[in-house]
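Entry 12.
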Amino acid sequence: MTYDDAEWHQETVDELGLPEDSAATHIGIFYAWMRAHGLASGTTLWHGVPEPVPDPHLDLLDDRKLTPGAYLVQHMVGQFDAGAFTDEGNAFTDASYSAYLDAYSTVPEVARYDSTYAAPDTWQLYDAVAPAIDALYTRWKSSR
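Predicted 3D structure (tokens):
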């Protein structure tokens, strides 16, 4: 199951006249947070290889050499699915991704734009959004 895909948002991004990669920012931020909190699987699928393999590009995300959205576009084909996360990561995503999208839109650094897609793909934006995901995760953990 695919949780989110930049292609699903592309028509709106195009209508707004924004760069194509603007559709990936919110997805990449969520993935980067999951990776930073040990909830990402750290694997990827390669054509012709039947099982997931360790993702050799994760250092680009971990070391902030690529922004979250850019990483998602360049190394995850603009989307993530259940294979991107650990069992706990999938349980959290299943329970909280919709709430994340709502919370994302209310973060002041996102809300100041006419559209959430206009928020820049930067590590500063990630740092502003991360506390909202932290709160969702804490709430989810306490309800289990």
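Annotation: The mean pLDDT is 93. DSSP finds seven helices and four strands in the chain.
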